[in-house]
Amino acid sequence: MSTKKQLRIGLIGCGFMGRTHSNGYLRVKNFFPDLAYQPVLKAVCSRTESKARAFAEQWGYESVETDWKALIARNDIDAVDICTPNDMHAEIAIAAAAAGKMILCEKPLARTLKESEGMVDAIEKAGVANTVWYNYRRLPAVTLAKQIIDSGKLGRIFHYRANFLQDWTINADLPQGGAALWRMDADVAGSGVVGDLLSHCIDTALWLNGSITNVTAMTETFVKERMHQLTGKVEKVNIDDACSFLCRFSNGSLGLFESTRYARGHKALYTFEINGENASIRWDLHDLNRLEYFDNADDSTLRGWRSIHVTDGDQPYMDKWWVPGLGIGYEHSFVHQAADFLKSLETGAPCSPTFKEALETQKVCQAVLDSAASGAWKDTEAL
Ligand SMILES: NC(=O)c1ccc[n+]([C@@H]2O[C@H](COP(=O)([O-])OP(=O)(O)OC[C@H]3O[C@@H](n4cnc5c(N)ncnc54)[C@H](O)[C@@H]3O)[C@@H](O)[C@H]2O)c1
């Protein structure tokens, strides 16, 4: 019998993220033994009972629900974890906050800025602990980038560049909508690559390089009509397949962002590069344990890009894993966020990004979409 304080989790949505979060809660017990709190997988909710039962058995949930409202109404749930498609985030989060539950919500916060603002209001009114799963912040190499930037080693920052490239929607016969393809349906997803992929790039950028003041963007929908799986009819596609935008940060640096699902050969190529007066940093999700660093103060005969394998015990999170030199993976970012959320309950400090912090990402996403629609620069502070 554990002597730890319990955080009783109610998970909603048994898809991709339902699995990564469940894995996070399970692993945190083994690898973060010093935490005062321990997650207890109390209940999982899927609309289909057989699916919920199979998921509960696979991941060790004690019980199942088929209606998320019933899950929220339970007295034996402390925290609600929202792993549903984007159209459900606001309704569930607002109801969970009203029921006094802590909330861990998948990104993007919601489909639109307006929906997101309603969520932040509800959370603030309820005063419940909350976090949004912008998990890339918690890959050790990305956290190390943050530490290097905060130490001032880069000096004045001139440029921030990020890409998130995929190729899975190039096929013009791919339908839109329905269980597997909700990302193609604007009514469910809110937007295309802007909310799905650029939101990650923007969250990391705001964290590493501060606020974005204004943007100019272009979007494109390469395939304009697709069969909708729920209606069986060919319907207009309302999501953005690709988006590029330029921006200015409040620290005076310039930003260049690109995301597309039409970059043949790329499955999930998230990269960023930051160029400062004294040094530069770059990172690539496909080689996620590595951080590249160029320091202009190095001896000129030895100067060059260093490739840092971020696996040593004095680098972020790595004292919790194996031995120096052995890498970790994508899934560990979720273990780290679960650990940081549990730690935040112990310390009382918020677990970033909170809903309020994630609202800043929503503002930039909205500014990007507005600018692409109008063709004009858009000021984020005016939103
Ligand atoms: N942090 C990340 O890196 C990351 C990666 C992928 C997805 N996401 C986000 O996570 C969320 C879920 O994405 P996913 O890839 O897991 O999708 P998914 O389609 O794999 O899973 C969604 C699940 O929600 C269930 N669901 C839908 N409506 C429901 C309802 N009313 N009640 C209960 N269950 C319901 C579906 O049946 C499905 O099992 C999205 O908001 C997405 O943007 C984040």
Automatic annotation (TrEMBL):
One of its GO terms (molecular function) is oxidoreductase activity. Residues 7-132 form the Gfo/Idh/MocA-like oxidoreductase N-terminal domain. InterPro entries: Gfo/Idh/MocA-like_OxRdtase_N (IPR000683), Gfo/Idh/MocA_oxidrdct_glycsds (IPR050463), GFO_IDH_MocA-like_dom (IPR055170), NAD(P)-bd_dom_sf (IPR036291). SUPFAM superfamilies: Glyceraldehyde-3-phosphate dehydrogenase-like, C-terminal domain (SSF55347), NAD(P)-binding Rossmann-fold domains (SSF51735). Keywords: Oxidoreductase. The keyword Phosphoprotein does not apply. Residues 144-282 form the GFO/IDH/MocA-like oxidoreductase domain. The keyword Oxidoreductase applies. This is Predicted dehydrogenase. It comes from Chitinophaga arvensicola. The lineage of its organism: Bacteria, Pseudomonadati, Bacteroidota, Chitinophagia, Chitinophagales.
